[in-house]
Design goal:
The chain has 147 residues and is of the alpha+beta class. 27% of the residues lie in helices and 18% in strands. The protein has one domain. Strands 1-4-2-3 form a 4-stranded mixed beta sheet, covered by helices on one side.
């Protein structure tokens, strides 16, 4: 079982959709149908079908990546919940999720993404509560309240 921090004070939503990194696409992908592109399109459709939404920003997104079947039980137990330090890169997971959720993600100003190993792949979204003074407020200069 993955080590996941859960608290009644922090809303946590888990979606059992295996994360897929956004591939580098070319014009040829319109007709070539490479397997990596087809997996990405299937992921994007699954995210939209699950109606995943992000809580008010900032939020934390954890991409739980399934461990390879070739790993021993001992290694699986040791790596469960540990940071995923190999390819694909975290920003490609992030890009795939944002592309699936939004046509234009320019309004996303703060996101804390992570990728971790697990036996149960999925996407976990946590709302992060920040002090009111840390959030930019219209009409209040950024330096107000600081020494």
């Amino acid at each position: 079982m993955a080590r996941r921090f859960e608290s009644p004070a922090i809303p946590v939503t888990f979606y059992p959709i295996a994360p897929v990194a956004a591939p580098r696409m070319t014009k040829k992908d319109r007709w070539a149908k490479r397997p990596v592109v087809m997996r990405y399109f299937a992921f994007r459709d699954a995210v939209r079908l699950a109606k995943i939404t992000l809580p008010p920003l900032p939020c934390k997104v954890i991409f739980w990546v399934e461990m390879p079947a070739s790993w021993s039980k001992k290694k699986r137990l040791a790596m469960d919940g540990m940071p995923h330090l190999v390819r694909p890169d975290r920003d490609n997971f992030d890009k795939a999720l944002m592309d699936a959720l939004f046509a234009n993600d320019a309004h996303i100003w703060s996101l804390w993404p992570e990728k971790r190993w697990t036996t149960t792949p999925g996407i976990e979204i946590n709302q992060i509560f920040t002090p009111l003074r840390a959030v930019a407020c219209p009409g209040i200069p950024p330096s107000a309240g600081r020494p």
